[in-house]
Each structure stands twice: as structure tokens, then as C-alpha cells.
Amino acid sequence: MAATNVEFRCFIRGLTWATDSHSLEKAFSTYGEVIDSKIIVTFGSDQAMKDAIEVMNGYFDEEAVFYALS
Asked: Where is the RRM domain (predicted)?
């Protein structure tokens, strides 16, 4: 029997730039209950987050433009 604190997470790579949390949940919920789905970056400090937002906001990497919002 599985413990109640066990989480069954999977990393999905190769997402298109149009993929969002809602589309992930919709696609995978056909296989069972999806507890959470998100595309997010979590930083270790407020300053790291602010630095990334300042540099990455509007950054173009040949495939997409990053718009970093706090």
C-alpha cells in the first residue's frame, strides 16, 4: 500500500511554447486524476528572481520571447 505522502510526478520535456498548465492537465487527465500541473521557475532567493526577470524579460532565443513576470 502506498503512503499518503507519496507524489507521482513526471517531467514532460519537449513542450511547445504554447503549452500551459491547463493544456497539460487536460492532456494527462484522460489517464487519471491530475492533482497539479504547472510550468514554473522557482528561485532560491528574491534577488535571483529579480535579476532573472530583469535580464530575461523580452529575451529572444530563436524560438520564443520570454516575458518574465513576478
From this structure: 9-68
Which sequence spans correspond to the domains of the chain? 21-66
Are 38 and 50 in contact by the 8 Å Cβ rule? The answer is no
Can you tell me the distance from the alpha carbon of 17 to that of 41, in angstroms, rounded to the nearest whole number? 15
pLDDT digit string, tens, across residues 22-47: 988 999 898 999 998 888 778 899 99
Task: Tell me the whole-structure pTM to 2 decimals.
Answer: 0.55
What does the H/E/C string look like for 4-68? Answer: CCCCCCCCCCCCCCCCCHHHHHHHHHHHCCCCCCCCCCCCCCHHHHHHHHHHHCCEECCCCEECC
